[in-house]
Amino acid sequence: MIMKTGINNIIGGQRSNVIYLLEQGTVSGVNFLMAILLARFIGVEHYGLFVINWLIIMFFSSLQQALIIAPLQSYLPALNGKSFKSVRSLINWMQLAFILISVILLIAFGLVSEFLTPQWGIWQFIPVLIPLMLAFLIYDFLRKDLFRQFKAQRALVMGLVLAIVQISGFGLLIYFSALTVNNWLIVLLISHFAAILIELPKHIRTYSSARFNMLQFTEVWKFARWLAGTSILQWFSGNFFILAAGSIIGPVAVGAIRIIQNLFGLLSLLLQAIENKVPVSASKIYGMEGFKPMLKFIAHVMKFIAPVYILFLGLIVVFNNEIIELVYGSQYVEYAWLIYPFCILFLLILTGIPLRFVLRTIKQTQHIFIAYVMTTAFGVLSANFIVSQMGILGVVIGMAFSQLISVLWFGFAIKKYHRRISNEPVKLL
């Protein structure tokens, strides 16, 4: 009964989630649309330059997610009264300090990149990257804080402003034949700045001049420090081979890889959607019925997801040239062959998703951290050789092997856990 209810919640959802899902769809949808249009009109090399710049911002965003947003969403709600107000103000000031430190690190990275990877030309974008990073980090913080307060409708307004400004800005750049990497970064800056203007005045009122509480800071830091390490490893694990391609081959390789990844964006949205739903229901089933019913529940959910996922991959494989030409234009058809290795990569990703759910449910998340350590080490030790020898194909192969390492480790960890609680054999999926 519990398993059936959990599946119904995942498939049907609840009415209260409509605005939240609409906001998620707006933000993810405009990101997906703009990535497609930008790649189509700006060219593969310049698109690769944009991706490299955006990856840098995403690095700081992942750190903020661990150090600031995770305590905001998971630590703060458990408090009340004076402690709540004090810690909320503390997190606000921590976010401000984080932004200032990020600016310093971004400037330092720009200077270092001039010597290590001059072909990226990061320094020329620094005057735009700094305010864009500030605006993006503030926007993401305000958005997540609204979710914490169950005010998704206000986050939706921010998302709509963001979407309207970006789409309008892109149209103007095309109309005036002014589409460049720098100009598009400026449009992103304006869109995020316009969005945060809606909520920032209200948010500033939550700051207070309360004295710094070292004990509270220590507690928040203890909560977030390991998450920060995991975020850094996760970022490098997912992007090291792409950065290696940008360094060894050039921005063209990064652009080619990302335009193919964009085609699989709908699958990423599907996986993100179930990742927001499945763990909660799986945790309830595990707590009330045990390990095996939880495994059966996750396997049952994947029986709904896997056919859609595999059908999508099949359509992309069969109509790869047509899809590339339709979405990006005929000039990108030469990269259609990358779809084949990417399908293998995404099959491995699909295999790893339920295993990750299981580990999170049984509170064995240290194995996810270990997997990130292993895949990051694999990337550091092998990326230069693989990419140098195999070119763009080597990037996808390296990413696929990283996923395979994670899948094998997850499977090993789950079997080890099951042997510890029972002598009976278990079939994971």
Question: How is this structure best described in words?
Answer:
This protein has 429 residues and is mainly α. Residues 9-13 have low confidence and may be disordered. The longest helix has 56 residues, at 366-421. α13 crosses α14. The chain folds into 2 domains: 15-217, no CATH class; 264-429, no CATH class. The protein contains 14 helices and no strands.
Summarize the structure.
The chain is mostly helical and 429 residues long.
Oligomer classification: single chain
Number of strands: 0
Estimated structural class: mainly alpha
Question: How many separate domains?
Answer: 2
The biggest beta sheet is recorded as: none
Fraction of residues in H or I helices: over 70%
In whole angstroms, the N-to-C terminal distance is 20 Å
- What portion of residues belong to β-strands? under 5%
Mean pLDDT: 86
H-E string: HHHHHHHHHHHHHH
- Give the overall silhouette: globular
> What is the number of helices?
14
Return Rg in Å.
Answer: 22 Å
- Which spans have pLDDT < 50 for at least 5 consecutive residues? 9-13
Layout of helices and strands:
Layout: H1 2-12, H2 18-42, H3 44-75, H4 81-116, H5 122-148, H6 152-175, H7 181-204, H8 214-248, H9 251-263, H10 265-289, H11 291-318, H12 320-327, H13 339-361, H14 366-421
Helix pairs in contact: 1-10, 1-11, 2-3, 2-6, 2-9, 3-4, 3-5, 3-8, 3-9, 4-5, 5-6, 5-7, 6-7, 8-9, 8-14, 10-11, 10-13, 11-13, 13-14
